Amino acid sequence: MITKGALVSIAVCFLCFFGTVAMAQKTVELPTNAPEYIFTFGEVECLEDPSGQLTFDEVRSGKFDKQFVANHLKYPKNNHVSSAYWYRVKVKYPGAAHSSYLLEFYDQTIDDITAWLPDNKSNYSAVRSGAEFDFDKRLFSHKNFQFIVPATHKGVYTFYFRIKSAQTVNVIIVHRSVQRFIGYALTEYFSFGLFYGMIIIFSFYNLLMYSVMRQRQYIYYVLYIISVGLYEMSADGIAFQYLWSDSPRWNEYAYAIPLFLLSTFALLFTLELLHVKVKARRLYKLILIVLFVRFAFFLLCALYDHNWFNYRIVEFIPLTVAFYTGFHIWRKGYKPARFFVLAYTFLFIGFVLKVLVVLGYGRFIPGWIAHYSMSFCFIAEMLLLSFAIGDKVRLLKKKKEKAQVKIIKQMEENARLKDTMNRKLEVKVKERTHEIVEKTKEIRKKSLIIEQQNVELHSANQLLKQQAEEIARMNVLLQKDNQELQTNIKKVTHDRIMSTEVDFEEFSKTYPDRDACFSLLADLKWKSGFVCRKCGNTNFCGGHLPYSRRCTKCRYDESVIANTILQNSRIPVNKAFYMIFLIYSTKGRISSHRLSEITGIRQSTCWMYSSKIKKVLNERKKELRKAGEQGWSKLVLE
């Protein structure tokens, strides 16, 4: 009796057996002399080698057979660029081949490919190629990588490939005859010639248009399509073949510069063609921001990490901004934008197809469409953008014709108005001429009268001149008398002040303010010349305060009241002068109460200040006996 455990064991063995059969690699049976076959999906098995150290003998030995995984995408990818990847395909030949065959890899950006090719005796020969080697080392002068298949007989053959690349690549393996390869290559290069020839023709044509129209949009368009051509040449491998065949390191990132220029000149062309600055101010600012950010990202990739150039998806941002700008301006009624929107629609479709293929979602897209979609869309875009430029020129021509018709009508109207004005002016001129003749006669009569009056005025002027000279002579005499009188008055006033007791109002006429007092004080203090109290220097310049002096050597600043009886005094300087004068003229007999009544200063302040003055007066009695009327001023200096 079969137990439950036995049934489970049998079921597990059954599932393992059929699971192993289901997971076994599919052998591709090629018809005799089949011209071409492309390996897809489970026909290619993949083994990831993170260390990159596995050898062919180890991979072939059988211990890694279970680690080979059948491809679930249309074409395999190296999802981790740091790893090496091993691929193998099994091919069954029904009989001996009558033609030469080769294996070709479509993606020309693969850095390093090593192919192990079996012969009839199951011996393998290794052949190496890749984008990191000079172009002239390839088997054929072709942008793709080819490996000649050794002569085969009937049987199953397993081909091994080791791929290492710094960027994500599509591993598209094609088995084709040499005859098919030659025909395909000639057709492909003929198509490339047509494509790049169209770019040259479009560039030359738009340069001619620029030489005639002098509009920057043509220059931006030429630079844009040249950038498209350089990018396509870099992406197709044509540039590596013909431009920098001995610079594989440069070829790895050569596409980044034309791709950056492509986005930049596309946005500049959009600004110029659609007049975005006038028609959509916010979008104009947005495009400038996108240009700046794209330039910053380019510099960051170039200076920091070249691997960031592989993020080509960022071009979706300027493409979307340009597309939306064209649609927005077209919706506002600008007709040339319709071709612009249609052109970017094609480019947008090509970009989306390319992204779907890169992300692995393009399994249902035919291979030739997926590979050449961007080229076809670029051609359609160039044609439609040329229509947009032509439409803009047509509109400009139409506006110019309308403007010319309007100018002609305006010129005719101006001529009619001119004739009307000329007739009116002729009538006015005749009337004015008659008036001028009549007024001329009147003017002649008045001229005679004026001439007679001039003679009379001349006589009167002579008389006035004589009188003016006499008045001037009298004024000179009066001025001399006034000066003598003023001098006598000042002298008498000064003598009176110096000899008698006068009130403060009369004293203030001689020393009215602080400047007058400081001027006298400066003359008294430095009448013998300035000598610095610090260093003895005799040269000085003006100080911070009025009438102060600063030493030019030690920068000592000496105030005019320093070292005088006025130093540290809060009494107004003219009143302090008056108090010194009163004490000197009364020989110190005037009381502090009297000084307070005269000057209006508190008695205690007057007492303190008069005591200081009287002390100096007593100390200098002998010196002041012969001082005369200016003796009071000598009390000022300490």
TrEMBL record:
Pfam family, any one: 7TMR-DISM_7TM
Domain 7TM-DISM receptor extracellular: 43-173, 188-392
Keyword match Repeat: no
Segment forming the signal sequence: 1-24
InterPro entries linked to this entry: 7TMR_DISM_rcpt_extracell_dom1 (IPR011623), 7TMR_DISM_rcpt_extracell_dom2 (IPR011622)
Keywords, comma-separated and alphabetical: Coiled coil, Membrane, Signal, Transmembrane, Transmembrane helix
Transmembrane recorded as keyword: yes
Transmembrane segments: 189-208, 220-243, 255-274, 286-305, 311-327, 339-362, 368-390
Domain of life: Bacteria
Coiled-coil residues: 393-420, 450-495
Name of the protein: Chromosome partitioning protein ParA
Taxonomic source organism: Arcticibacter tournemirensis
